[in-house]
């Protein structure tokens, strides 16, 4: 059976990582990959000979974005869609039901209310509190005095309320500094209890279509330019326990990434991303291929088990792709046949 997969965001590290994990999967030698981007140049367009379709689409905020995705799905009989950028997860999650109804394609993303929790850090805080999950005390900017009283004073963290690829995050040590570092409107800033620990983990859990957690894999990483630059897969029982608690409570569809710090041996989450990440290829290399699992379970209804991964380290480096100018997609799309 021919498998046609669409990956959005050819120019993003997330989209490229999803593609790499797909190519590393059991489907890698036979899958037909279509890739989208809002610009004509994106490394994902030229990542593999398995890329048979290169498509230019509007940005996700454009009212015609989902219409264009549906056109591609219909024309090329797309079976499943992976979002490759943070910007597109909202549009694709909200459009998933329509896409499936009109084309049959499955969008491998959580339902909109779960995507919303992962994007809005204040909603994350409230959801964790409602579910009895550990989380640092958090407040909107105008409630800073209440937060300071609750946590016993400075320092605190200042962050954008909406996901921002680690930009505009500050450790604040005084009320004066709080207002000096204020970078946008009050309602778009959250203040968060300072977690006094340098031990930070990101763990991914994968939930099947029945809401069952079928695997958790912890990672320690170093961030550069808003992405994981180097790190290691580490078997930490406390991190696995808390990540599973989060996934069991929220029941996302597919992947959820939980960021946390170890404070006195206890894992305290402070952020979640309800999507695939830019390190899917790293996890896949060590036996935790959630891209493959999504296709197995959500598309084909197969049972999956992601508990047989192994520990190891990784480091990223620049790599080039080479292509002919004629292969750059035009205004709508360009298709190249395999073989």
From TrEMBL:
Lineage top rank: taxon: Bacteria
InterPro entries per record: ATP-dep_AA_Ligase, ATP-grasp, ATP_grasp_subdomain_1, NAD(P)-bd_dom_sf, PylC_N
GO MF assignments: ATP binding; ligase activity; metal ion binding
All residue ranges annotated as the ATP-grasp domain in the record: 125-299
Keyword Iron: no
Membrane-traversing stretches: none
Pfam families tied to this protein: ATPgrasp_Ter, PylC-like_N
Keyword rRNA-binding annotated: no
Name of protein: Carbamoyl-phosphate synthase large subunit
Alphabetical UniProt keywords: ATP-binding, Ligase, Nucleotide-binding
Gene3D superfamilies: 3.40.50.20, ATP-grasp fold, A domain, ATP-grasp fold, B domain
């Amino acid at each position: 059976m021919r498998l046609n997969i669409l990956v959005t965001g050819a120019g993003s590290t997330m989209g490229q990582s999803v593609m790499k994990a797909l190519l590393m999967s059991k489907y890698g030698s036979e899958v037909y990959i279509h890739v989208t981007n809002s610009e004509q140049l994106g490394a994902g367009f030229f990542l593999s000979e398995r890329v048979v379709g290169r498509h230019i689409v509007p940005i996700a905020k454009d009212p015609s974005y989902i219409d264009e995705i549906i056109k591609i799905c219909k024309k090329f009989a797309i079976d499943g869609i992976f979002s490759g950028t943070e910007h597109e997860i909202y549009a694709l999650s909200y459009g998933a039901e329509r896409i499936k109804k009109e084309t049959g394609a499955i969008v491998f993303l959580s339902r909109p209310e779960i995507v919303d929790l992962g994007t809005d850090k204040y909603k994350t805080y409230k959801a964790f509190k409602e579910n009895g999950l550990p989380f640092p005390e958090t407040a909107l900017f105008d409630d800073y005095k209440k937060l300071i009283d609750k946590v016993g004073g400075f320092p605190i963290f200042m962050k954008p309320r909406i996901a921002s690829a680690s930009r505009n995050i500050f450790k604040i040590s005084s009320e004066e500094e709080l207002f000096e570092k204020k970078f946008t409107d009050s309602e778009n800033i959250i203040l968060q209890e300072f977690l006094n620990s340098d031990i930070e983990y990101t763990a991914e859990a994968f939930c099947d279509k029945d809401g069952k957690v079928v695997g958790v894999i912890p990672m320690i990483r170093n961030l550069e330019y808003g992405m994981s630059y180097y790190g290691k897969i580490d078997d930490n029982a406390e991190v696995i326990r808390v990540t599973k608690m989060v996934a069991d409570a929220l029941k996302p569809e597919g992947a959820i990434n939980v960021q946390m710090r170890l404070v006195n041996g206890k894992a305290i989450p402070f952020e979640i991303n309800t999507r695939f990440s830019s390190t899917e290829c790293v996890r896949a290399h060590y036996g935790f291929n959630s891209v493959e699992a999504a296709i197995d379970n959500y598309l084909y209804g197969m049972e999956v088990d992601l508990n047989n991964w192994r520990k190891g380290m990784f480091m990223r480096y620049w790599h080039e792709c080479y292509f002919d100018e004629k292969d750059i997609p035009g205004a709508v799309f360009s298709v190249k046949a395999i073989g």
